[in-house]
């Protein structure tokens, strides 16, 4: 297996299935959240004294030319030992993220491909990407440029009301990113990560209102993205996000059963 897309409604239960793919096939999880954190961290670590907004040309509705941004950032990047290209991408993402705006596909695609190519375009679980039809088409092109392939799209199915209940009770370890649930997979003593001992947190976007917004986004944007991949012949497999009895072994069995026809 070279690459696999794992998708589903937010809160459907993707992470336990991703964990199976990591352990069974030796793949690396590449999530959009981690990609954004990487590039934002690179930019925010560069001390150059200008805000991302100062590079935005409001009249043109676009950033000033990349060459100008690179020239400004290059001295600070050199002093900090970081890639100026990564800092430019981080600056562009920060302009939208800091303002609470939707990051355009063009920038998300550039961030994704940079991370994708750092892994040579192979051995990856794509988590959270693609989320739109345009991103799906970009992914197909990026895979072609890397000379690799997509083996399957694994969709984790779950019902909306079950997702709401699951997500409101979700807790995340801020240190190692392990996921817990107060009822179904509780942290140690109700607050500590069982892997690293850090105190788990309740993410600010794990409220019912925000969850329902994300569920609507899945229907509107992500389903068309899946359709683009399916139309190009990428096999689609489904696994249940809600099992009658939740154990690591049953999760593993359901994932492998779904994938066996594809891998054969």
Short characterization:
Helices cover 50% and strands 13% of the residues.
Q: How is this structure best described in words?
A:
Helix 2 (32-44) packs across helix 5 and helix 5 runs parallel beside helix 6. The longest helix has 24 residues, at 208-231. The strands form three sheets. A five-stranded parallel beta sheet has the order 2-5-1-6-9, sandwiched between helices. It has helices at 14-25, 32-44, 66-80, 84-97, 105-118, 133-146, 160-168, 208-231, 248-263; strands at 3-8, 28-31, 56-57, 62-63, 124-127, 152-157, 170-172, 179-181, 236-240. With 264 residues, the chain is α/β, with parallel strands linked by helices. It is 50% helix and 13% strand. The protein is globular. The protein starts with a strand and ends with a helix. The protein has two domains: 1-27 and 123-169 and 206-264, P-loop containing nucleotide triphosphate hydrolases (Rossmann fold), CATH 3.40.50; 32-122, no CATH class. A hairpin with a 4-residue loop joins strand 3 and strand 4 (62-63).
Task: List strands and helices in order, with pairings.
Layout: E1 3-8, H1 14-25, E2 28-31, H2 32-44, E3 56-57, E4 62-63, H3 66-80, H4 84-97, H5 105-118, E5 124-127, H6 133-146, E6 152-157, H7 160-168, E7 170-172, E8 179-181, H8 208-231, E9 236-240, H9 248-263
Parallel strand pairs: 1-5, 1-6, 2-5, 6-9
Antiparallel strand pairs: 3-4, 7-8
Biggest sheet: strands side by side, in what order?
2-5-1-6-9
Number of DSSP strands?
9
Order of helices and strands: EHEHEEHHHEHEHEEHEH
User: Low-confidence spans: pLDDT under 50, at least 5 residues?
Assistant: none
The main pleated sheet reads as:
5 strands, parallel
Based on CA atoms alone, the radius of gyration comes out at: 20 Å
Q: Tell me, rounded to a whole number, the average pLDDT.
A: 93
Strand content: 5-15%
Identify the overall geometry: globular
Specify the number of helices: 9
CATH class of the largest domain: Alpha Beta
CATH topology of the largest domain: Rossmann fold
- Percent range for helical residues? 40-55%
CATH superfamily of the largest domain: P-loop containing nucleotide triphosphate hydrolases
Task: Tell me the span between the first and last alpha carbons.
Answer: 11 Å
CATH architecture annotation of the largest domain: 3-Layer(aba) Sandwich
């Amino acid at each position: 297996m070279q690459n696999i897309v794992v998708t589903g409604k937010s809160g459907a239960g993707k992470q336990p299935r991703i964990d199976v793919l990591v352990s069974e096939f030796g793949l690396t999880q590449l999530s959009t959240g981690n990609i954004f954190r990487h590039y934002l961290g690179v930019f925010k670590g560069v001390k150059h004294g200008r805000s991302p907004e100062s590079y935005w040309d409001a009249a043109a509705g676009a950033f000033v030319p990349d060459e100008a941004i690179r020239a400004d950032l290059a001295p600070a990047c050199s002093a900090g030992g970081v890639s100026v290209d990564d800092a430019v991408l981080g600056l562009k993402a920060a302009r939208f993220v800091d303002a609470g705006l939707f990051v355009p596909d063009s920038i998300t695609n550039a961030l994704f491909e940079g991370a994708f190519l750092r892994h040579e375009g192979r051995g990856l679980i794509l988590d959270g990407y693609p989320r739109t039809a345009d991103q799906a088409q970009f992914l197909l092109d990026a895979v072609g440029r890397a000379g690799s392939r997509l083996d399957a799209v694994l969709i984790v199915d779950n019902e909306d009301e079950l997702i709401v209940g699951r997500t409101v009770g979700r807790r995340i370890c801020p240190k190692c990113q392990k996921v817990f649930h107060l009822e179904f997979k509780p942290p140690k003593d109700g607050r500590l990560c069982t892997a690293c001992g850090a105190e788990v947190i309740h993410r600010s976007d794990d409220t019912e209102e925000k969850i329902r917004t994300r569920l609507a986004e899945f229907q509107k944007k992500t389903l068309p993205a899946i359709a683009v991949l399916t139309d190009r012949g990428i096999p689609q497999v489904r696994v249940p996000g809600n099992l009658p009895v939740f154990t690591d072994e049953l999760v593993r069995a359901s994932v492998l059963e779904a994938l066996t026809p594809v891998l054969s």
